[in-house]
Amino acid sequence: MQKTMKVLSNTLTLILFFLLITMVFIVISSKASGGEPQIFGNQLKTVLSGSMEPTFKTGSIIAVKPVEDSSTIKKDNIITYVQEDGSFVTHRVLEVIKNGEYTMFKTKGDNNEDADSQPVLAENVKAIYTGVTIPYLGYFIDFAKSSKGTAMLLIIPGLLLLGYSALSIYQAIREIDKNNKPHENEKTA
To answer: Rounded distance, CA 127 to CA 42, Å?
Structure first.
């Protein structure tokens, strides 16, 4: 029984520590990049609309890789581009249009009936979808980027870890005291 409790204790400590480190990473990465967190050179983007359903569900996280050479983009790739108003859109390439030295992309959301009204200039393409999607994590990331979310995601796991550590220390001290007390049938000199 004591061995099982020790294994459970160690497992809980490891989970709480991993949770704290993960939250710190998400918060710092979001703040450092000025928006979306990054991992292994990929940006994690939150899907904010249903224009790409069923490929991406609203609230999902997708991993996109920054585009260094837009000439590698081809039909059926999913690209993230910046619009005139500064917002980002992730849609599928329907057609690559070459016009002299300029390249443009005709795009469409998988769930939209019509193609996007304006072709996307190659220089506006910022990233290409890597094939990694994590459903519903986007809601969590958006919460983590808020000031309340940042505070909660750093403080709560830290407090849980501190509380659990205090409990472990209390139990260890109690065990030491129990072992140091003379037993009833022992006589003290």
So the answer is: 9
**Structure-token match 């500064």, residue found:** 86
> How many CA atoms lie less than 13 Å away from 30 in the CB half-sphere?
20
Sign of the alpha-carbon dihedral angle for 16, 18, 19, 21: positive
Tens digit of pLDDT for each residue in 105-136?
999 999 999 999 999 999 999 999 998 888 88
Residue 123 CB contacts under 8 Å (≥ 6 apart), including other chains: 70
Cβ proximity of 64 and 45 under 8 Å: yes
State the pLDDT confidence band at 23, using cuts at 50, 70 and 90: low
The Cα 91–Cα 128 span in angstroms is 10
- The candidate with the shortest Cα–Cα distance to 123, out of 71, 64, 46, is 71
Report how far residue 98's alpha carbon sits from residue 85's, in angstroms, rounded to the nearest whole number. Answer: 24
Q: What residues are annotated to the active site?
A: 49
pTM > 0.70: no
